[in-house]
Automatic annotation (TrEMBL):
This is Sigma-70 family RNA polymerase sigma factor. One of its GO terms (biological process) is DNA-templated transcription initiation. Pfam families: Sigma70_r4_2. Keywords: DNA-binding, Sigma factor, Transcription, Transcription regulation. One of its GO terms (molecular function) is sigma factor activity. Residues 109-156 form the RNA polymerase sigma factor 70 region 4 type domain. Belongs to the sigma-70 factor family. ECF subfamily. PANTHER family: RNA POLYMERASE ECF-TYPE SIGMA FACTO, RNA POLYMERASE SIGMA FACTOR HI_1459-RELATED. Gene3D superfamilies: 1.10.1740.10, Winged helix-like DNA-binding domain superfamily/Winged helix DNA-binding domain.
Amino acid sequence: MSEDVREDDGRSPVAAPLRLPLDFQAHYLMNQEAWHAYALHFLRTNDAAEEAVHRVFLEILRHWNALLAEADLQQQTWAILRRVVIDELLQDFREELAAMDSGVGLYPALGKLPQRQFDVIVLRYIFDYNTARISWYLGVTPSTVDYHCRKARERLAPVYQSRYGTKEDPK
């Protein structure tokens, strides 16, 4: 992010940094290290963590003025970080699932779930997170988590029923 600025003699270009709001710069400096550690914990590679945090700060910058009007800037920006990291993590996992064979068609059925239903099912049944933790990660209410879980299980029920010949709800 730079502007093309010529030296005083007008000959060679000099890259000047894009002027960012001072309060945004302070927010960046205050959070960058911790956010990188958070992203690295989940995404496992430095490159993936750096790219995710970069996307987070670009999104924050795009909405900076609106975020400043929020009651809790730190909470709002942390929610953006969580969403970006979890979306990246779950997208990678979704792609891995598509390539796997469960023998009963469960993995392809999981891959066809709408995004929120997929996220909730993976976080609940694969990562073993409780409703409160899923709610926190996804930035939705616990009742919304339960709704998406219920709807996803309804969509997955035919796969379960075809394998086990029962009408019981898979849990």
